[in-house]
Write a structure and sequence with these properties.
The protein has 344 residues and is α/β, with parallel strands linked by helices. It has a single domain, classed as Alpha-Beta Barrel (TIM Barrel). Helix content is 39%, strand content 14%. The protein has an 8-stranded parallel beta barrel with strand order 3-4-5-6-7-8-9-10, surrounded by 5 helices. The longest helix is centred in the last third of the chain and has 18 residues. The radius of gyration is 20 Å and the shape is globular.
């Protein structure tokens, strides 16, 4: 396993992280992801740790908190050997203080997560969404208090726009509050929007990307094929409307390229898609998930080898799309073009 610094922080994380969204299995979205119980979760965590995976990611909104509870049980007795990453800010109820990043909400959410995880500290606490109704100063001052109290070690965000991160970093620098070390983002061969603004920001400000859904919301498993119906067991039947949109013709061009490289390398399509991400600028860790041991072991096979430069170029070309304004003019600049290959 490769270990990388999380952005500008001193925290080293495994290049592959495990996403515990399948733990708990409650609700229409997360219930369709999986329903891993504590016993099964412990086995998956065992396999991850044997492979060198150290970071495990969850959120209070996953299965109404059950994901955190199951993860807490699965890591019992070895808390000091893992990095726990969780998220808050999305709605967890209908009450006026059940969403957002106000001081009250963040403190309550942190205390609740600590109880569910059965731990006294969270290694990485990320804001799951930007709260436009709360001043950034209030958010960052509260996170600073949680860090100083020893309840949180590092802070990050997820699904923020570039200006939201930059404003937060500037205010953090002004007052000496903790900077966001990580940005948990959607990034895959069929979803490269991250590269247009957020990647250049991450390079400039040294914010590490933690990539979620590296298989494009289940579309790059090798089971979704041109001219064929979705497999009966695909979670896309229930969850496609929740995930990032994708152009099918673009997706199938990517799958064609993955097929060719799979034949050349003897690797699976998911392994190639994840491996491509591991070599992208700013990426500190890629989150993999699994319903069972077989899926997990296959995804863990994405590390320990490299694609050739020719194979990377072919994947870049197959997955490239033209950036919208104001980003497309910068394709003429060599540095930006290297990160954003033009469409072919």
């Amino acid at each position: 396993m490769d270990y990388r610094r999380l952005g500008a922080s001193g925290l080293k994380v495994s290049a592959l992280s495990f996403g515990a969204g399948t733990f708990g299995g409650q609700g229409p979205l997360f219930g369709s992801w999986g329903n891993t119980d504590a016993r099964e979760a412990r086995r998956l965590v065992d396999i991850c740790m044997e492979a060198g995976v150290t970071m495990f990611d969850t959120a209070d909104v996953y299965s109404n908190g059950a994901s955190e509870e199951v993860l807490g049980t699965a890591i019992r007795g070895r808390r000091d050997k893992v990095i726990v990453s969780t998220k808050t800010s999305l709605p967890v109820g209908d009450g006026p203080d059940d969403s957002g990043s106000s001081r009250s909400r963040l403190i309550r959410a942190c205390e609740a997560a600590l109880r569910r995880l059965a731990t006294d500290y969270i290694d990485l606490l990320q804001l799951h969404a930007f709260d436009a109704g709360t001043r950034v100063e209030e958010v960052l001052a509260t996170l600073d208090d949680l860090v100083r109290a020893g309840k949180v070690r590092y802070v990050g965000v997820s699904n923020f726009a570039g200006w939201q991160i930059m404003k937060s970093l500037a205010i953090a620098d002004k007052y000496g509050w903790p900077r966001y070390a990580a940005h948990q983002v959607y990034y895959s061969l069929v979803g490269r929007d991250y590269e247009w603004e957020l990647m250049p920001l991450g390079l400039d400000q040294n914010v590490g990307a933690v990539a979620w859904s590296p298989l494009g919301w289940g579309r790059l498993t090798g089971k979704v094929r041109r001219g064929q119906p979705l497999p009966e067991v695909s979670r896309l039947h229930e969850t496609s409307g929740f995930g990032p949109p994708v152009d099918e013709q673009h997706m199938f061009r990517v799958v064609d390229a993955l097929d060719e490289i799979a034949q050349e390398t003897g690797r699976t399509i998911p392994q190639i898609a994840i491996n491509w991400l591991l070599e992208r600028p700013t990426v500190s860790s890629v989150i993999i998930g699994a319903r069972n041991e077989e899926q997990l072991r296959q995804n863990l096979g994405a590390i320990g080898w490299t694609l050739t430069s020719d194979q990377v170029e072919r994947l870049d070309a197959a997955s490239a799309v033209t950036a919208p304004y104001p980003y497309f003019p910068y394709h003429r600049q060599e540095g930006f073009a290297r990160l954003n290959p033009p469409a072919v």
